[in-house]
Design brief:
Elements (H helix, E strand, L loop, with lengths): L2 E6 L8 H16 L4 E6 L10 H7 L8 H6 L1 H12 L2 E7 L7 H10 L6 E4 L2 E4 L5 E7 L12 H11 L4 E7 L6 H14 L7
Helix pairs in contact: 1-7
Length: 201
């Protein structure tokens, strides 16, 4: 059984282009593996907030030494991490806002990048602990070409995912919606149809 985590970061809800395109990919995967499960994670959930000193302090306190307050502070982070740990496939709908990722998606990243949990430091540098997973990132833009010099979202997400051990990352180009939305959607869906699906165990 394949476990899919779908992270949606658009503020546009069901009308989101990145969400609709990611959903098409999920449909392909489920068609290939009807037993697949899907966990939906909206980065706009008010429980997902920016890091605070209190949160970081709890992260760096050994688990057995955390106070009840600290445990509560990082409970949302623990939940987000558990979702990533349980996933075989992570699908991120990443609209480009002002040349980068939405602040809500950055907040989600900050909650799952946990030293000693999703990555560790060694004498040879950082090592990701979330290995053996596949990630697809739908990068939806108004006019900025994906992987252009002005695209700071794609390299950031590839770097972050690789940092926690997810090195198998496929980018789905969904650019140009402000130029011609209809054509952009047609191209994006074609890109979804073209990606290789992971083999079903």
């Amino acid at each position: 059984m394949t476990n899919i985590l779908h992270v949606n970061a658009s503020v546009n809800g069901e009308n989101s282009n990145s969400r609709q395109i990611a959903s098409k990919l999920i449909e392909r995967i489920v068609a290939a593996d009807p037993s697949a499960t899907v966990v939906e994670r909206d980065a706009n959930d008010k429980a997902i907030s920016a890091l605070t000193g209190e949160t970081v302090g709890a992260f760096y306190t050994p688990e057995g030494s955390r106070s009840e307050v600290q445990k509560e502070v990082i409970s949302v982070s623990d939940k987000m991490v558990a979702e990533v740990q349980a996933a075989d496939i992570v699908i991120i709908g990443a609209p480009m806002y002002n040349f980068s990722v939405p602040s809500t998606l950055k907040a989600w990243v900050d909650l799952i990048a946990r030293v000693g949990v999703t990555f560790k430091y060694t004498d040879k540098g950082a090592v990701g602990l979330m290995t053996g997973k596949k990630a697809y990132v739908v990068v939806a833009t108004g006019g900025t070409p994906v992987n252009s010099p002005a695209d700071f979202a794609t390299p950031y997400l590839k770097q972050v995912l690789g940092f926690i051990g997810i090195s198998d990352v496929e980018i789905i180009d969904a650019s140009g919606f402000a130029v011609n939305a209809e054509e952009a959607m047609v191209r994006a869906i074609a890109n979804v149809e073209a990606v290789a699906l992971p083999s079903v165990a």
